[in-house]
Amino acid sequence: MTKSISHNRERGRASFLEAMSRVASTVSIVTTDGPAGRAALTVSSLVSVSADSPLPTVLVCINKSSAACPVILSNGAFCANVLREDQQHIADIFAGRTGHVGEDRFVAANWAKGTSGAPQLVDPLASLDCRVTHSDLVGAHHVIFAEVQSLCIGSREQPLIYANRAYGTTAPLASKPDVLVAKAA
Question: Where are the domains of the chain?
Fold first, then answer.
């Protein structure tokens, strides 16, 4: 049974957050490095915008109070490292749940230098090295749009999922062969 909730400011916000907690998302570590420094954080808001623009475009939403947010915006680049189901420990470290801070957080995994200079996880499910094109402040979050400069596709393992305010995994998804589907004329 579903229940309808009327919208008043406080109850509406809490209800919205509860509803969105039920939306399953992949978990990524967004990293940056450049003149403004090196920073990273865990996100569950990496979204494909378009594969049909001159370069593929994604967006990521980052709370403006995050220490990594101004560094990412100033560097103008980031790498979104999509985590596998066995990489929850990395998500916890970059979400600030373990007590690791600063450069100590990066020792939890092996990193390479991406095209943008941002740390790229050596064994991700996938990683997208991006150049920021623009951002918009919406409420407490910067919606950051970026063009994918290079990418890495890892093995066909299951993604780490965040839903109901917890990490989880999907039931194994059937693998389909890599087949391109032609558009109907």
Answer: 25-163
